[in-house]
Amino acid sequence: MGSVNEVNPRVDTTVRVFDDFYTFSVEVDANEYDVVNSYFKSVFTDNQIARNFTTSLFRVAEQTNQPVLTLLSQIEGQDSITLTNTMCYYLNGIRSPTTLLGVNNPVVPNYWTARNVLL
Asked: Is 64 a domain residue?
């Protein structure tokens, strides 16, 4: 009789990472997914944010043809703000220039006009 903990050799240990919004799907090794996801869970307090960053890193790795663990080693040790900026840099490299992330030019109104605005 088989055990519940027995590994089925016909089922591979991969994880399907997908993003419905961008119709992105890729099959990755389950161990790599766990390593990347656990790193993002250690940086961010919200699990949904960690999963989104994990999906984004696998997307960047797929588009740039680089191993995901190489990309992970480049961003390890960063705090959440620096990590967000780095991910914006990576994602901007694979996105259309009209939809860049993290680009913000603060609008400074004329002093006299801003003075007349009532809140």
From this structure: yes
Whether the Cβ atoms of residue 27 and residue 13 lie closer than 8 Å to each other? no
The alpha carbon torsion through 60, 77, 48, 69 (nearest 10 deg) reads 40
- Asked whether 33 and 40 are in contact (CB, 8 A), the reply is no
For the stretch 2-29, pLDDT in tens is 444 555 556 555 666 655 555 667 788 8
Residue 62 located in a structural domain: yes
Q: What is the domain range of residue 64?
A: 14-115
Q: How many domains does the chain have?
A: 1
Q: Which of 92, 93, 111 is nearest to 102 (CA)?
A: 92
Whether the full predicted model's pTM is greater than 0.85, yes or no, is: no
